[in-house]
Design goal:
Blueprint: H1 2-7, E1 11-15, E2 23-28, H2 46-60, H3 62-74, E3 78-83, H4 95-112, E4 117-119, H5 131-147, E5 159-163, E6 166-171, H6 178-187, E7 194-198, H7 218-227, E8 231-234, E9 240-247, E10 250-256, E11 268-273, H8 278-281, H9 292-295, E12 299-307
Parallel strand pairs: 2-3, 3-4, 6-7, 7-8, 8-10
Antiparallel strand pairs: 1-2, 5-6, 9-10, 9-12, 11-12
Helix pairs in contact: 4-5
Length: 324
């Protein structure tokens, strides 16, 4: 059961085409690295106290075991690993502590993984006093080095690289710049597949309407992605699911990953159908009403992996996208 559960705390994406090289990428969702030693202010709100308790418990055993299992499975098969934001919890209270948090968690991943490790910016990574400066001081130079790209002049965590004929866009969903995406798509018109790696989702994935980009930029942005049949890899909403957006220009497939499991032995169930029916099925307040008119006619193939009785503890899935 543990081995089966482990399989579902990661995405292992395998990309192949009639023409082109086949390869795999290991994808982690939110990990929220945390430690009491990295907290200067323990006077927390009730919600932040719950988050700290969750993080400390899961980092005792579960998350290190997930990373180790992923390394054992993928070190010899995957080309690289990517973590989709909220690598850390944030809330350290001082820049130097947040910098140490980044360095600690990078060391943990690099100790186990023998393949390049990439990460995109999450909202928690820059949450708290001095956190933005800490991210710019540690993570931007790190990503610049591993991707062999210059540090962005505007300090936004946007990068674009080609890998074996495929385009990977590392998108800063906190300091949003849709122009970077448009320029990148134009620069690489012949990419086999195009992947947008973002922390905050582009399409609805659960009972949350926090999406990128802003409402006024959304129609043009989605058309641009659909024309290229972009595959979106994201996190943030602490579940695992997939969904497809279809319009005249083309379609977008989005996969959401989560890697902070509270229990590695839970059975999981699958919920499929209309995402806008999900809040009622889970007996949750409906937060999707505002975005329903825009999205509902175009959303298809929604699949949600639910663990146990608490959907927000779900962990992951295996996917083999093969867009045409």
């Amino acid at each position: 059961m543990l081995k089966k559960s482990m399989t579902f705390v990661l995405f292992i994406l395998t990309f192949a085409a009639v023409c082109g090289e086949k390869y795999s990428v290991l994808v982690f969702g939110d990990t929220h690295y945390d430690s009491k030693e990295l907290r200067i202010d323990m006077k927390l709100t009730e919600n932040k106290q719950k988050e700290l308790k969750r993080n400390l418990k899961n980092w005792e055993t579960n998350v290190p075991l997930v990373i180790r299992s992923a390394a054992e499975k993928c070190n010899s098969t995957a080309d690289f690993a990517v973590q989709l934001g909220d690598l850390t919890q944030g809330d350290c209270g001082a820049r130097e502590l947040q910098e140490k948090s980044f360095r600690n968690v990078l060391e943990i991943f690099q100790k186990e993984l023998k393949i390049p490790f990439h990460s995109v910016k999450g909202n928690h990574d820059v949450r708290g006093k001095g956190a933005h400066a800490a991210y710019n001081a540690v993570m931007l130079p790190y990503m610049s080095k591993v991707l062999k790209q210059p540090v962005p002049e505007n300090r936004a965590a946007n990068f674009a690289v080609m890998h074996k004929g495929d385009l990977y866009i590392y998108f800063d969903s906190i300091k949003v710049d849709v122009g970077f995406v448009y320029e990148t798509l134009k620069k690489y018109p012949d990419a086999r597949y195009t992947f947008l790696l973002t922390h905050v989702p582009v399409l609805p994935g659960y009972n949350s309407d926090w999406l990128v980009p802003k409402v006024k930029e959304r129609p043009e942005f989605l058309k641009a992605l659909a024309k290229r049949k972009v595959i979106v890899l994201c996190a943030h909403i602490h579940i695992t699911c997939s969904i497809r957006y279809e319009i005249e220009e083309g379609d977008i497939v989005q996969f959401v990953s989560y890697s902070l499991p509270s229990n590695l032995h839970r059975e999981y169930s699958v919920i499929e159908g209309n995402i806008f029916d999900l809040p009622a099925k889970l007996d949750k307040p409906n937060k999707l009403a505002k975005i329903k008119p825009f999205f509902e006619p175009h959303l298809k193939d929604f699949v949600f992996h639910r663990y146990g009785a608490t959907p927000r503890t779900s962990c992951g899935a295996i996917a083999h996208p093969n867009p045409t």
